[in-house]
């Protein structure tokens, strides 16, 4: 017979019909790192009341820190390469291209002047037309050379091609993602308290190897403490989420107000009987109610409770 069944049987003695037996329960928070490592520093001990954001424990981080430094270097190299591709050639290279263009332009001026002289000489019949053709060819060659060097100078002043720049930009994004992952891994080796809570248990000691995902500290936030009790089928239909109840226990002092937060959709903890109209009264349904975090500190998981419906209290007072 289960513990809850015993509570129900115990509550069926001399208690009024508006009282139900139950017990305190809790949803524990297990603080763990997703990455394995040796526990190097433990800041908590069992029974501590830990504040939100306070350090909990640290695992060794040498390999993760080394990976982060490598990721930083990779990102810096990728950023430098992208910046270099976006820039043109170096100033000295541009100056060299400009000098070559000036030299070609001077040669074109010279060949153009020579062509004019050759045309005059051909008209005066001092030279043959063949020499004029040679002068015209020289001018055409010099013009082509000037055009070539002008194009080279434009390319020199430009950065790399767009596809090369795009590829380099993707390398920067990849390196930044690797750095973010490395930072995340380092951060996962230093755990802090997520919510104010009592330290229920410490499962490892400094120097021990903690497996990935292995809980190191078990926490109990006061808002995670709740009451569980069981009602017959006839009572279930009168209850609803948000309804008020009061909790009583030995040594708790005044009744503790709580609010129903869960109604079980299925029957639980019943005797192994075949269902019929005659025995359906043996069906019970689990109900959960939560007190305020301040009042929850007065309860302890596993503690027997007596729960009274606020509606029943109100009807009795009328």
Written description of the protein model:
The two termini are 39 Å apart. The chain is rod-shaped, with a radius of gyration of 43 Å. It contains 8 helices and 14 strands. By secondary structure, the protein is α+β, with helices and mostly antiparallel strands. The chain has 3 domains: 123 residues, Efflux pump adaptor protein, beta barrel domain (Elongation Factor Tu (Ef-tu), domain 3, Beta Barrel); 65 residues, OB fold (Dihydrolipoamide Acetyltransferase, E2P) (Beta Barrel); 102 residues, Helix hairpin bin (Helix Hairpins, Orthogonal Bundle). The longest helix has 33 residues. The N terminus and C terminus are likely disordered.
Q: Can you count the beta strands? A: 14
| Largest sheet descriptor | 6 strands, antiparallel, barrel
Q: What is the residue-mean pLDDT, rounded to a whole number?
A: 83
Distance between the termini: 39 Å
Oligomer: single chain
Strand order of the largest sheet: 1-10-13-12-11-14
Q: What is the N-to-C succession of helices and strands?
A: HEEEEEHHHHEEEEEHEEEHEH
Assigned CATH architecture of the largest domain: Beta Barrel
Q: What spatial form do the alpha-carbon principal axes imply?
A: rod-shaped
Count of structural domains: 3
What is the C-alpha radius of gyration, as a whole number of Å? 43 Å
State the helical fraction. Answer: 40-55%
The CATH class name of the largest domain reads: Mainly Beta
Assign the structural class, choosing from mainly alpha, mainly beta, alpha/beta, alpha+beta, or little secondary structure. Answer: alpha+beta
Fraction of residues in β-strands: 25-35%
């Amino acid at each position: 017979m289960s513990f809850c069944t015993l509570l129900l049987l115990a509550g069926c003695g001399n208690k009024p019909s508006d009282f139900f037996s139950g017990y305190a329960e809790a949803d524990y928070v297990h603080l763990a790192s997703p990455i394995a490592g040796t526990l190097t520093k433990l800041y908590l001990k069992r029974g501590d009341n830990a504040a939100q954001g306070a350090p909990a424990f640290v695992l060794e981080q040498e390999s993760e820190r080394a990976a982060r430094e490598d990721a930083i270097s990779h990102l810096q190299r990728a950023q430098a390469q992208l910046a270099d591709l976006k820039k043109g050639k170096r100033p000295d290279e541009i100056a060299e291209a400009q000098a070559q263009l000036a030299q070609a332009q001077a040669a074109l001026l010279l060949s153009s002047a020579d062509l004019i002289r050759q045309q005059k000489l051909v008209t005066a019949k001092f030279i043959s037309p063949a020499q004029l053709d040679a002068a015209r060819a020289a001018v055409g060659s010099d013009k082509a050379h000037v055009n070539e060097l002008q194009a080279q100078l434009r390319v020199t002043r430009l950065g790399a091609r767009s596809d090369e720049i795009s590829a380099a930009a993707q390398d920067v994004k990849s390196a930044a993602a690797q750095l973010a992952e490395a930072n995340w891994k380092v951060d996962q080796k230093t755990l802090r308290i997520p919510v104010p809570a009592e330290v229920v248990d410490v499962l490892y000691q400094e120097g021990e190897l903690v497996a990935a995902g292995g809980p190191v500290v078990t926490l109990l936030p006061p808002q995670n403490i709740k009451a569980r009790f069981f009602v017959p089928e006839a009572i279930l239909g009168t209850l609803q989420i948000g309804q008020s109840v009061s909790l009583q226990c030995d040594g708790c002092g005044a009744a503790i107000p709580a609010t129903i937060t869960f109604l079980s959709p299925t029957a639980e903890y019943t005797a192994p009987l075949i269902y019929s109209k005659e025995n359906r009264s043996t069906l019970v349904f689990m109900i959960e109610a939560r007190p305020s975090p301040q009042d929850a500190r007065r309860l302890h998981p596993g503690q027997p409770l007596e729960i009274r419906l606020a509606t029943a209290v109100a009807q009795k007072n009328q």
